[in-house]
């Protein structure tokens, strides 16, 4: 029986997010880290609509081409983690574990009742909806002004302007798809209950320095997993795979050890 560890990347990044993954995380199997739709060798034109469901089907097709059967372990970050939640039902019993770093379901958080999550975090998510251009203006979506709001939110004010030019150029080159992904996190993520975790060992990690909304979304997803645990990563924010890869790698190794023991 084959074992595949499938890695899904986040908005504005790529499979390089997982370049440091070593064989100790692969459970004796193989690694598969496809590009999301619209990245790498297959850009999409402005005006093309792409959903998280489309990305899940794309990842599913890549997996079927690589390994049409056998066990699957999912590792994913941010938007990739949202795609993983859409992919898991397509895989069914093939999914043997999940490691999700801060899945982003902004629409679910914006609609959440205060009793379900932190009211300040819900208000943070709803604040994006008040800037309707950020979610709905196709003429500005993914371009410089949009990128500044997106990048600065996940990092700190001024991060977009401080970003090295090659990184800015990359983000702008995939900006339309980034815009589509953010829209999906709001408009496809209708509620947390719509994306239950499978009955498989699941680790949800979140940075202690991440935005309140991101931390709340991670906790809400973890609460809906029959075999899920929530782990805080000290000293990190949302972009831990890039800023603190050593801390994330340690958490991933701990997940592999934990899932083998439960």
Topology record:
Elements: E1 3-8, E2 30-32, H1 52-66, E3 71-77, H2 79-91, E4 95-101, H3 106-111, H4 119-130, H5 132-136, H6 144-154, H7 159-162, H8 165-173, H9 175-187, E5 202-207, H10 212-223, E6 228-233, H11 240-243, H12 245-261
Parallel strand pairs: 1-2, 1-3, 3-4, 4-5, 5-6
Helix pairs in contact: 1-2, 4-10
| CATH homologous superfamily heading | Alpha/Beta hydrolase fold, catalytic domain
Q: Could you state the order of secondary-structure elements as H and E?
A: EEHEHEHHHHHHHEHEHH
Distance between the termini: 21 Å
Number of strand elements: 6
Secondary structural class:
alpha/beta
Task: List segments where confidence is low: pLDDT < 50 over at least 5 consecutive residues.
Answer: none
Describe this structure in words.
With 262 residues, this protein is of the alpha/beta class. Helix 1 packs across helix 2 (79-91) and helix 4 packs across helix 10. The chain has helices spanning 52-66, 79-91, 106-111, 119-130, 132-136, 144-154, 159-162, 165-173, 175-187, 212-223, 240-243, 245-261, and strands spanning 3-8, 30-32, 71-77, 95-101, 202-207, 228-233. The chain has a 6-stranded parallel sheet, with helices on both faces. It has one domain: Rossmann fold (3-Layer(aba) Sandwich). The longest helix has 17 residues, at 245-261. It is built from 12 helices and 6 strands.
């Amino acid at each position: 029986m084959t074992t595949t560890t499938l890695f899904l990347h986040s908005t504005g990044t790529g499979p390089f997010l997982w370049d440091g993954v070593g064989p100790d995380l692969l459970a004796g199997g193989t690694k598969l880290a496809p590009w999301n739709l619209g990245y790498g060798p297959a850009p999409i034109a402005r005006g093309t609509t792409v959903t998280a469901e489309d990305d899940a089907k794309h990842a599913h097709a890549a997996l079927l081409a690589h390994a049409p059967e056998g066990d699957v372990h999912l590792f994913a970050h941010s938007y990739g983690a949202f795609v993983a939640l859409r992919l898991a039902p397509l895989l069914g019993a093939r999914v043997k574990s999940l490691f999700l770093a801060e899945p982003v379901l902004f629409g679910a958080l914006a609609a959440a009742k205060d009793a379900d999550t932190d009211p300040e975090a819900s208000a943070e998510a709803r604040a994006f909806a008040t800037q309707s251009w950020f979610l709905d203006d196709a003429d500005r979506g993914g371009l410089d002004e949009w990128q500044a709001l997106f990048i600065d939110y996940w990092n700190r004010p001024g991060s977009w302007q401080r970003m090295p030019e090659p990184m800015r150029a990359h983000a702008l080159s995939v900006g339309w798809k980034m815009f589509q992904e953010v829209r999906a996190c709001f408009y496809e993520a209708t509620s947390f209950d719509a994306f239950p975790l499978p009955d498989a060992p699941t680790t949800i990690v979140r940075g202690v320095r991440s935005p309140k909304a991101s931390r709340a979304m991670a906790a809400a997803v973890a609460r809906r997993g029959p075999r899920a645990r929530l782990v805080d990563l000290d000293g990190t924010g949302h972009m831990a795979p890039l800023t603190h890869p050593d801390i994330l790698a340690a958490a991933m190794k701990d997940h592999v050890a934990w899932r083998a023991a439960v």
